[in-house]
Amino acid sequence: MSYSSTRVRAGGLQWGVLWPASTIYSSEGHRERRPPLRSALSVTHVETSLAALVRRTSCRSSAASSLGSTLNLKCSPRDLPAMRDEAVESLRALNEVVERLRAPGGCPWDGEQTHRTLRPYLLEETYEVLDAIDSRGPETLREELGDLLLQVLMHCAIAQESEEGFDIGDVADVVRAKMVHRHPHVFGDLAVGGAADVVVNWEKLKKSEKQTRLSLLDGVPHALPALAYAQGVQKRPARVGFDETPTVARALDSVREALDTLRSLAATAPAASLQGQDWAISNGDTGAAAAEDAIGALLFATVALARQLRVIPEEALRGRASRFADRFRALETRAREDGVDLHDLGMSEWRRRWDAAATLSNQG
What we know:
Blueprint: E1 3-10, E2 13-20, H1 40-50, H2 52-55, H3 61-66, H4 85-102, H5 108-112, H6 119-135, H7 138-159, H8 168-181, H9 184-187, H10 195-209, H11 226-239, H12 248-266, H13 286-308, H14 313-337, H15 347-363
Antiparallel strand pairs: 1-2
Helix pairs in contact: 1-4, 1-8, 4-7, 6-7, 11-13, 12-13, 14-15
């Protein structure tokens, strides 16, 4: 069956697909019947871009030009395993599903989505992937990675509906060119002494690509969780030679300095317990504002210490919080078994049950 390329305009959007040549359109440009969907991406980009990521390392000029003239890629062939034909077909089929959902006559909800409206779903799916990694369940991880891939394809489908848009093949081209360019020790003739040299060279190459950026910190997303953001703004300058706390000893000194400040502030703090209440700093509360600044300094110094100890602070805190949660759930479970209402417990009984829960949570 032959195919012809057609753009169907609906609701101000343009949707580019390949339909069978025999498809009939009305004078207004609407389809009279729905043929089996076959996207241009599924025929060309998936096979030549996605499969090419592992089939070969020769450079495509279109990929290089998409990153700008700074990417003068120098590649050498290497023997790499081929992507399974079934995997290529699966990617093609999934992309067809996404395009069908977005097409005229497809799903009303999917058709209304934009890059911005999909933001919370992209964030949610990313966190679910991280949760699946922590649970170490391959089946769960496979499912969650699929949900994340769906989000990527949805954003690409939305993008290709605009006049100057892009599709998943263009995305694959750009990231492939980027990886080849930033690994001259693999695809070129550069010799490196180890992973540290790779990191330094990576930053130099990245700077050559991002010539419009005025600061090394421009590439650190401000929307990151605070600990990850702090790690990012510390790490970027350190990669080019500036580290405010270059040793474990200096990082520990920063932690001690922040703690000393907090001890002084705590001496004048209210003695009453908040008992789980939420709170906010009032505009005129200079003491609370000073405490917030000191806590920030302590956390920032702790991130620096974690970095020197080769610990990811976000993961360290998440792990500690998870262990606390597991232990508290064990306490709740035993209290239910004993017919005890937690609201009726005194401090000594809380402490006894909390100590006992340590053993219970370890057994679980």
